[in-house]
Design a protein that fits this description.
The protein is built from 6 helices and no strands. The protein is mainly alpha-helical.
């Protein structure tokens, strides 16, 4: 089950990035297979030949919103992770729905986004004992965006 969920997330993210054609299902299956092969070869995010990847303004705005949500939560001192996880997931859904990026920059974004999706999912399902650690990991992961994207 744990291996199926990431695959489902990958397919959902790719489908919702407005790369639809007249034969959506065939394209999605092919894209998903190619994405899996690409991830198995090199799933670690790297710079674009030493330069940052190009992120569109909408993506940057959504990442900024995610960072604001986490920063606000950390300042609040709250011990309830469920509302944070819900807000983060909603914001991630908006980022995915609004995604217009294509090509290698889009692929690099997926390499950054997929671990974040997993961390938010884990936060939804986790106990408060591990929740603080996950919030810190999510915050650090959001900070990494600036290192790889402009």
């Amino acid at each position: 089950m744990k291996k199926i969920l990431p695959l489902i997330l990958v397919v959902a993210v790719m489908v919702s990035c407005k790369q639809k054609t007249s034969n959506d299902q065939e394209k999605t299956e092919t894209t998903s297979e190619q994405h899996e092969e690409h991830n198995s070869v090199n799933s670690e995010l790297q710079l674009n030949s030493g330069a940052k990847w190009k992120a569109d303004s909408g993506t940057r705005a959504h990442v900024s919103e995610l960072k604001s949500i986490v920063d606000g939560y950390e300042k609040s001192g709250s011990k309830d992770f469920a509302p944070l996880a819900t807000r983060l997931q909603e914001s991630l859904n908006s980022l995915i729905d609004d995604c217009k990026m294509t090509g290698p920059d889009h692929d690099a974004l997926h390499k950054w986004l997929e671990p974040l999706l997993e961390k938010v999912k884990e936060l939804k399902d986790d106990s408060p004992a591990n929740g603080y650690s996950l919030v810190k990991d999510i915050s650090e992961h959001l900070d990494v965006f600036q290192n790889y994207f402009e």
